[in-house]
Amino acid sequence: MQDWLLKYSQLSQRQQKPLFFKSIPVKKMKLKELESCLQEVDVFEEPKLLLEQYPTRPHIAACMLYTIHNTFDDIENKLVADLGCGCGVLSVGAAVLGAGLCVGFDIDKDALEIFSSNVEQFELPNIDMIQCDVCLLQSDRFSKRFDTVIMNPPFGTKHNKGMDMQFLRTALDMATGVVYSLHKTSTREHIQKKADDWKVKMEVIAELRYDLPASYKFHKKKSVDIEVDFIRFSMK
Ligand SMILES: C[S@@+](CC[C@H](N)C(=O)[O-])C[C@H]1O[C@@H](n2cnc3c(N)ncnc32)[C@H](O)[C@@H]1O
């Protein structure tokens, strides 16, 4: 058994809960409590624009995770993967809500160093991380290994067109159950077609306004608001 799968099975047997939050039963954690906890997660020190390193804001991250947990029960005691985990706001939230184990995947060593210090700060035993290029993940290694995949993928706007769909294809290969992801609303029709081709059910759970940092000197504003869909994909 892979090391991290072993860790998962040991954790599930012991029903270990995050130490830091063990006094709050996970089902009872309020949205506001989750959001204020996620405000403590450190983010990118020097974001790399080509890797689309902008963190999910605590409010959006909390709303996503709260819904995944309370409406769909797809976090507690589940094996969760977070693709393009960055500094770990989604992973930390999933772990706090009682994931059996949450494994973050990211290409960037600097981001994973911050991820690691966040995990230490929160004293979370149910988090692990893997440095890799998500687009090159060998499909047999992680295929159908996770109950739930969560992600805020690169949108493919930085000379990396199609990156969002590569992340989605990988996520669907890795999950046995469901994938939760953020995508630009302007790509909804295209994603729906792909979901139909892949025989996956797609449900837009929420439409969000998302502020992306402006990336070029000629951009006048510091950030631009774009419309983003929060989508749930499940196997038909
Ligand atoms: C929009 S950020 C999201 C970060 C984090 N999940 C969050 O919600 O705050 C996208 C992340 O994808 C990572 N990334 C970009 N290309 C990648 C690739 N090919 N493989 C793995 N991670 C990648 C970036 O380093 C970055 O951390």
UniProtKB/TrEMBL annotation:
Domain Methyltransferase small: 71-171
Highest taxon listed in the record's lineage: Eukaryota
Pfam families on file: MTS (PF05175)
GO MF annotation terms: nucleic acid binding; rRNA (adenine-N6-)-methyltransferase activity
InterPro entries cross-referenced by the UniProt entry: DNA_methylase_N6_adenine_CS (IPR002052), rRNA_MeTrfase/Polyamine_Synth (IPR051720), SAM-dependent_MTases_sf (IPR029063), Small_mtfrase_dom (IPR007848)
Family membership: Belongs to the methyltransferase superfamily. PrmA family.
Protein name: Methyltransferase-like protein 5
Native species: Acipenser oxyrinchus oxyrinchus
